[in-house]
Amino acid sequence: MTDAMNVDSLYQEIILDHYKRPHGAGLREPFEAEVHHVNPSCGDEITLRVHLDGNTVSDVSYAAQGCSISQASTSVLNDLIVGKNVEEGMAILDEFNTLMHGKGKIEPDEEILEDGIAFAGVAQFPGRIKCALLGWMAWKDAVSQALVTTSSTTGDPK
Amino acid sequence: MTIVEGTQTYDVARIREDFPILGRRLAGDFPLVYLDSANTSQKPVQVIDAIDDHYRQHNANVARAMHQLGAEASAAFELGRDKVAAFIGAPSRDEVVFAKNASEALNLVARTLGDSGRIGQDHEIVITEMEHHSNIVPWQQLSQRTGATLRWFGVTDEGRLDLDDIDTLITEQTAVVSVAWVSNMLGTINPLDAIIAKAHSVGALVVVDASQAVPQLPVDVAALGADFVAFTGHKMVGPTGIGVLWGRYDLLAELPPFLGGGEMIETVTMAQSTYAPPPARFEAGTPPIAQSVGLGAAVDYLSAIGMDNVAAHEQAITAYALGALQEIDGLTIVGPKEAVDRGGAISFTLGDIHPHDVSQLLDSRGVAVRAGHHCAKPAHQRFGVQSTTRASFYLYTTTEEIDGLVEALHHTKKYFGG
Fold it and tell me: Into how many domains does chain A fold?
């Protein structure tokens, strides 16, 4: 138990690096959908925009207030998702989500999650799983809305 | 033995022996430093044993079971009410209504005041910016149901209620004023006398959220002069699942029921019902029986120590903590910084380290605090912060634990490169 609950397994160096220098932070244009998500238990907030170029996620921009875990997780999301198509992005989300709910028993796939594997330790701290998923859930919501927007405007980006 | 300055006869070490959980060691073999008592207090063996004994020896439903155990359980349940009534100086035991928590007690008042027709669209409801969500949301809902206007006292930079505009806030239009006695976030003890006097001078009712007050201050509701006082058992060394609404009997007798169900009726036909007098009118269904037994044991425990002594210890430990915390570079206390008219909850920020991360690091050292908005988002917004870390103390808190908190905060700063 002591090892599993070691706080260093939560605050991996990679996580602290992303927290201090988040990738892709800031809100940018153009975008097809913008969402605002909160973590009601702590008040952490994120505003996240998705820009689709056809079926490709060409930008994920965001402004967030939150803890190191939620900030770093959104930074990693930006690394992993931008440039992928929507289906690939959703598959990465599934992989990350599965890791988060794996109670620390799942070996993460570095091929898919890259820096995201650093979050494996978060799964052992049930109180922090929502932090790690805040940006991801916002992205899922935003991309779903963006797909509706782009399909109704025949894919013509703003 | 730890003797806190100013409370020579107060033996914290002796008191701690009554709380088995305080002897726990956590991951990494760190001893538990429990600084989250404003969230929920720990329980002494006297309370645990009373609940245990009730379930082992006396368990039955109350009021309706005619057998011997039913009589014992009913007597035990009602004895809890007697003890609570005496503890808060209630003129009558029938003024003590049991709810499931303070939130339900406050909702009970807001709902039934609305249903009684006392609140209309020309009326105003006055609360404060430092309330817990449970003393904000029910009044927002009441104003939506009735068309009444919701108004509130602001908070000064120091974290005190801004009473400058009391005469424009509490007016002939005011139907009800609901205010926290002690803020769960800022720690402020509010000047209820002035607010109650003003409210009563315009004919408004006063509801007091005493969730953080009854655990740590001597309370005499008759002397206080409010119309309703709500608090909860689990913050005063009692069990979860029981809250208390004290109300002036004439007002309770005037209010319609809250929830409908068993035991709150006089008689029922298929077409209509008539209702029992208070407090039964507001206690539909099987009540919190073992919880009443436990709460009775809790007030016995607090009374044996003496609430004056509990309050003095709280004051001393809070003063010690305020001093120690303010010596940490980058730590900012949100709320009064001196132990004057102040309860034992201290919320703070630590540089730009997020409170989640602070509390996680403290937890890794066995120090349990709360991080987040503490169900007081408007109070956080007032101070331009999204969340804070909160350390809160109680009758078993020691100066060594405060020292442990300070040490763990230094460790946290170092960990995040502060």
Answer: 1
